[in-house]
Specification:
Strand content: 15-25%
Helix content: 40-55%
CATH superfamily of the largest domain: P-loop containing nucleotide triphosphate hydrolases
CATH class of the largest domain: Alpha Beta
Radius of gyration: 25 Å
CATH topology of the largest domain: Rossmann fold
Number of helices: 9
Shape: elongated
Number of strands: 9
CATH architecture of the largest domain: 3-Layer(aba) Sandwich
């Protein structure tokens, strides 16, 4: 009641006839302080977005298109000890190094996560993530299902985990067939592995369908997830 009386004691010009600036200043006087021009909502924190899913769901295509439509995204370049292949570019496709150099990074705790894959090491450099997040970039990591499980243990709820799928199991198998990159034995292993990996969907924050011929819709869904995460009152704090 006391506040109502204090406010009512300050003369405020007519809303219908008063000058806008005059009315604004009168309202400031009434509330006893100037109105701030600072943003009402806090500045969103950069995100770490982990994208995973079975082989053949189009993770690379999604990430490539997402980077084209959102300049504030950095795709982390993985370090590897395997030899560079024809057409690959150091620092773009991978950071190529010797096994000794890679193990030195492991010893110095410079990798967020690493694994031995077919005799060669692959890992995610921490400093690259820190540097780009400090510049305000959102970070995208592409990992396999096993890698996503490892990152969940390391990052917990501080990262956004997205599971990418095809529209059906049948479509996923057809995509694997169409790649024509494996022998029939390897193809059977890929299919069996994909079936097992689909069971891990429940361990992710979001599931996004990348339907055949509808990449743009998939990208828009990813953008909606990013925007929704940035609009949360309690935002994720990246622990890297």
């Amino acid at each position: 009641m006391g506040e109502s009386r204090r406010l009512a004691a300050v003369p405020i010009p007519s809303v219908e006839t008063a000058d806008r600036t005059e009315l604004y200043r009168a309202l400031e006087t009434s509330v006893g302080s100037s109105f701030s021009s600072e943003p009402l909502a806090p500045k969103p924190r950069p995100l770490i977005i982990v994208i995973s899913g079975p082989s053949g769901v189009g993770k690379d295509c999604l990430i490539k298109r997402l980077r084209e439509v959102r300049e504030s995204i950095h795709f982390v370049v993985t370090a590897t000890s395997r030899p560079m292949r024809a057409g690959e570019v150091n620092g773009k496709d991978y950071f190529f190094m010797s096994k000794e150099e890679f193990l030195g990074m492991v010893e110095n705790d410079e990798l967020l996560e690493y694994a031995l894959v077919y005799g060669d090491y692959k890992g995610i450099p921490k400093q690259q993530i820190r540097d780009y997040m400090a510049k305000g970039y959102d970070i995208v990591l592409r990992v396999d299902i096993q890698g996503a499980a490892t990152l969940r243990k390391i990052l917990g709820d501080s990262a956004v985990f997205v599971f990418l799928v095809a529209e059906s199991e049948s479509e996923l198998v057809m995509r694997l067939i169409d790649r024509k990159t494996e022998s029939k034995e390897a193809l059977l292993v890929r299919v069996a592995t994909a079936r097992e990996e689909l069971k891990q969907m429940k361990n992710f924050d979001y599931v996004v369908v990348n339907a055949e011929g509808k990449l743009e819709s998939c990208v828009k869904t990813m953008e909606s997830i990013i925007d929704a995460e940035k609009a949360k009152v309690s935002q994720r704090r990246a622990m890297v």
